[in-house]
Amino acid sequence: MKLWTGRFSKEADKITNDFNSSIGTDRRMYREDIEGSIAHAEMLGIQGIISPEDAEIIISGLKDIEREISEGTLEIDMTAEDIHTFVEGELTKRVGDPGKRLHTARSRNDQVALDIRLNLMKECDEISALLKKLITVLGGMGEKYAYTVMSGYTHLQRAQPVTFGHYMLAYAEMFLRDTERLGDCRKRMNRCPLGACALAGTTYNTDRYKTASLLGFDDICHNSLDAVSDRDFIAELASCLSLIGVHLSRFSEEIILWCSHEFKYIELDDAFSTGSSIMPQKKNPDIAELVRGKTGRVFGDLMTILTVMKGIPLAYNKDMQEDKDCIFDSVDTVKACLTAFIPMIETMTVNSENMRKAAAGGFINATDCADYLVSKGLPFRDAYKITGGLVALCIEKNTTLEELPLDEYKKFSDKFDKGVYEAVNLDRCVRCRTSQGGPAPENVRREAERILSRIEDNK
Which end of the chain is less crowded, N or C, counting CB atoms within 10 A of the terminal residue's CB? Predict the structure, then answer.
């Protein structure tokens, strides 16, 4: 059944029907479509636009349809144009004339705008829950590895000493921001478009605030043109998901590097690794690589919705049917990535000794050596130059600042004494970085507690 056949004298070509159909995508919104229709019918009955009896019949029929689809006893007809057509047609087939009254004071334009908002608000909640689970894992690792010294990097070169716990909390901060962005996006999504109809509202005495209240919205969309044509919330969600993808991809890159033979900082659990069909020694970080790759797909979805919307005049245009394919793909991709990524991180083995060994050989305590000379009265630039010479000497002699004899130090400056060994001790180097946000173990433990407390408070 086509909802628009009255104007036409002949059937649409099958090519037109197939090309025009969105049932393959929007069938996933059947619950939201029925939820919105129930609220709409209830409002129509309260306002006397349809009889209370008809409203009850409609609501009862819709609940039966929703239950049967959920139980699998009613199959969605994939030849229907969209989920709205299917639900209304099935309802009318069951209850007769009352079903034909459901669409009073409503258009598919405001109906689909409603469905997608309801659906994506639920998806925001589910993605936030996954992010909070990941943050909880990272917060626990922050506490556990607060004293595990490792190299911090710039330009992928060993730079200064941090701890593995501090490193994990850096990613926890990124994902915390992601949850905040999703929350902000959801707030702007939380406006009810139903009642805007096709674009210009209706002459019926509807109560849009009542419908919004029944559906749990905070407010209504206040301009009927904007209500049916706004897809900012989809673009904003796609942007939020893209940033989640960025953070997952960066983290994946670290994992891929760290579990290589060249680093050996971590080892992934066998359950979250794969092998090679020809090289028996291989243990591949396929989950991390796939997450890194799928991020590009999420970026593409963002570009799709931005490109679709950039040239569309008010109000609704059929181009906007493309919004659901891209945002659903983005949502599904990010959820799949998080679902696989969390247990991969949770079960990996941390090779603390390898981290410490790499840190010791990377001269990441050079800044601390320079700071030691500054504490003796040398200007920082002079101390920096002297320390650079010491590093060059260590490289030449295949040793470290911690092992270099004191007489070698004194050749560069008479300011050096045996206290330099305490200054360049890696544990002390980390322990003394007590500035706010720094990697001192007590800082890390406090920050881990703060992050875990925030997650617990927001559950």
Answer: C
| Domain assignments of the chain as residue spans, ordered by start | 5-104, 112-144+160-204+227-357, 362-457
User: Is 362-457 assigned to CATH 1.10.40.30?
Assistant: yes
Considering only the top CATH level, what class is 112-144+160-204+227-357?
Answer: mainly alpha
Give yes or no for a contact between 368 and 423, defined as CB atoms under 8 angstroms apart.
yes
What pLDDT was estimated at residue 278? 75
Asked about 222 being catalytic, the answer comes back as no
Residue 4: what pLDDT?
43
Find the farthest-apart pair of alpha carbons in the chain and give their distance in angstroms, rounded: 101
To which residue do tokens 């002079």 refer?
382
Of 155, 261, 277, 435, which residue is the catalytic one?
Answer: 155
Reading the block at residue 88, the tokens are: 């209304």
Question: What whole-number distance in Å separates Cα of residue 235 and Cα of residue 206?
Answer: 30
Looking at residue 267, what is its pLDDT? 96
Whether 360 contacts 400, CB under 8 Å: yes
Q: How far, CA to CA in Å, does 11 sit from each of 2, 17, 84, 105, 108?
A: 10, 9, 20, 26, 20
Angle formed by the axes of helices 366-375 and 380-397, to 10°? 140
Q: What residues in the chain have per-residue pLDDT under 70?
A: 1-13, 15-20, 277, 280, 459
* CATH 1.10.275.10 given to domain 5-104: yes
Q: How far apart are CA 374 and CA 380, in angstroms?
A: 6
Average pLDDT in the chain: 94
What was the pLDDT predicted at 35? 98
CA 41 to chain centre: 35
> Which one of 51, 70, 260, 276 is the catalytic residue?
276
> Taking the CB of residue 165, how many other CB atoms lie within 10 A of it?
27
276 is catalytic: yes
